[in-house]
């Protein structure tokens, strides 16, 4: 693979010097640049085009996560290793979403940090299976919150909307040119998908969703 070129980003000079000395002691790693702010980090990393950027999550003028997102947009092949003093689930999640390859605490042993740099430089992720599973679960949860009706078909959404208007199954059938029994089946299915037992719950959901969207008078505002 050759020598791994690294840029260090941390607002504490003592930390940067310590990490730089640690990494430079290895024959296959070279620290080619340092930065102490988000603004200077972006400029340095894009100019130097290293293999790995070791980024402090918290910087005086911004976030290492934002730096990661910006530099990876310019340098897709760059591996970002987030380094932080605090175990923060939100920061971990944001780092992963920004494209970081790894996330380690500053309390990490020197040999482990060296190994982490080599791991992300080789194109591998430094997230364990448990962390990855937690990230996927959070993504699914966010998706369901973003669109609570994601599981419904277009037909089921239309029927739900009409339930919200207070129509009976027969009236819905007449509106949509469906048999009343067919509508009943649709209602049962959509209630099951929404984990609801009664159509009044579905009607309340429609009302809430329209209220959240400002209800601009559209028939279906979600």
From TrEMBL:
GO molecular function: DNA binding
Entry keywords, A to Z: DNA-binding, Phosphoprotein, Transcription, Transcription regulation
This protein's name: DNA-binding response regulator
Organism: Planobispora siamensis
InterPro entries: CheY-like_superfamily (IPR011006), NreC/VraR/RcsB-like_REC (IPR058245), Sig_transdc_resp-reg_C-effctor (IPR016032), Sig_transdc_resp-reg_receiver (IPR001789), Tscrpt_reg_LuxR_C (IPR000792), WalR-like (IPR039420)
Domain spans labelled Response regulatory: 5-121
PANTHER family, alphabetized: TRANSCRIPTIONAL REGULATORY PROTEIN NARL-RELATED (PTHR43214:SF24), TWO-COMPONENT RESPONSE REGULATOR (PTHR43214)
Taxonomy of the source species: Bacteria, Bacillati, Actinomycetota, Actinomycetes, Streptosporangiales
Keyword Acyltransferase: no
GO biological process: phosphorelay signal transduction system; regulation of DNA-templated transcription
Ranges of residues in domain HTH luxR-type: 145-210
4-aspartylphosphate modifications at: 56
């Amino acid at each position: 693979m050759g020598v791994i070129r690294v840029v260090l980003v941390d607002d504490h000079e003592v930390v940067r010097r310590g990490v730089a000395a640690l990494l430079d002691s290895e024959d296959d790693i070279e620290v080619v640049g340092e930065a102490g702010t988000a603004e200077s980090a972006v400029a340095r990393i894009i100019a130097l085009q290293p293999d790995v950027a070791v980024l402090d999550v918290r910087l005086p003028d911004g976030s290492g996560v934002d730096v990661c997102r910006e530099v990876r947009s310019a340098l897709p092949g760059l591996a970002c290793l987030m380094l932080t003093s605090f175990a923060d689930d939100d920061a971990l999640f944001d780092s992963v979403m920004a494209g970081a390859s790894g996330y380690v605490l500053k309390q990490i042993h020197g040999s482990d940090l060296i190994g982490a740099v080599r791991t992300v430089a080789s194109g591998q992720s430094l997230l364990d299976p448990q962390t990855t599973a937690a990230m996927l679960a959070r993504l699914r949860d966010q998706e369901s919150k973003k669109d609570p009706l994601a599981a419904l078909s277009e037909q089921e959404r239309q029927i739900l909307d009409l339930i919200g208007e207070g129509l009976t199954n027969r009236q819905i059938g007449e509106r949509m040119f469906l048999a009343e029994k067919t509508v009943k089946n649709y209602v049962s299915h959509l209630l099951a998908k929404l984990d609801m037992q009664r159509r009044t719950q579905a009607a309340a959901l429609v009302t809430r969703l329209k209220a959240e969207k400002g209800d601009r008078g559209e028939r279906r505002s979600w």
